[in-house]
Design goal:
single chain, elongated, 116 residues, two-stranded antiparallel sheet, mainly alpha
Length: 116
């Protein structure tokens, strides 16, 4: 319960849900989990950018890094829009970003495995 400081009345139900002045407050995600999701999403995007060029360029070439930047920008924008439209917390952007990266990279890997 260290995330819920300065609370007058705390009722712990075991699921991280507490009462605070008549409102229901959920405990937020730890920061390290948000960072892990974001780094994992960028890693998947980097691999997809590298495979996009069929390994013709190195991992750190301008072509691969440019494609990586476009992938990350697109997926982060979609994640931000999805989180804002759903009314979720901004910390959920990293989870949605990883989910989008997983779906797209999975589809691309299946396509590349079938057509190479």
């Amino acid at each position: 319960m260290k995330y819920l400081r300065n609370m007058r009345t705390v009722t712990d139900s075991g699921a991280g849900i507490s009462k605070r002045e008549g409102r229901t407050v959920q405990a937020r995600q730890p920061w390290w989990l948000v960072v892990c999701w974001a780094v994992s999403g960028v890693g998947l995007d980097w691999y997809c950018a590298f495979e996009w060029f069929s390994g013709r360029y190195s991992l750190y070439s301008a072509h691969v890094l440019g494609a990586l930047g476009l992938f990350v920008l697109l997926y982060a924008t979609v994640a931000l829009l999805a989180v804002r439209l759903a009314g979720a917390r901004l910390r959920d952007i990293a989870a949605v970003f990883l989910f989008i990266s997983l779906i797209v990279s999975g589809a691309m890997l299946v396509h590349w495995a079938a057509h190479r």
